[in-house]
Design a protein that fits this description.
Layout: E1 5-14, H1 21-39, E2 42-47, E3 54-63, H2 66-82, E4 87-95
Length: about 100
């Protein structure tokens, strides 16, 4: 039986231009759709639901090689850091 590894990336970021929860949701939807389409990972909002300028997203990836997971989640992290309309506050990654 092949080993299965799971990688988890938690990313906290600020959306400085957001003035309402509706604006925040639009930004989050755009980010989540982009990540899903480009990287084929699972993504969900996991915190700061009631704050309109701060968000936390959890991203997960499953593969049989840790190297593949590490590369994918690092590319996802770079995707977020490249967006000029958000500011990454914190990022943590774990592979089990």
């Amino acid at each position: 039986m092949a080993l299965v590894h799971v990688g988890i990336l938690k990313i906290d970021f600020q959306i400085p231009e957001s003035r309402t929860l509706k604006e925040k949701r639009m930004v989050l939807q755009r980010l989540k759709d982009g990540v899903r389409n480009v990287f084929n990972v699972s993504i969900a909002e996991i915190g700061h639901h009631d704050k309109w300028q701060i968000a936390s997203l959890g991203i997960s990836c499953v593969a049989n090689e840790k190297r593949h997971i590490d590369g994918t989640l690092n590319r996802v992290k770079n995707f977020f850091e490249s967006k000029r309309y958000i500011f990454v506050i914190d990022c943590s990654m774990e592979i089990i």
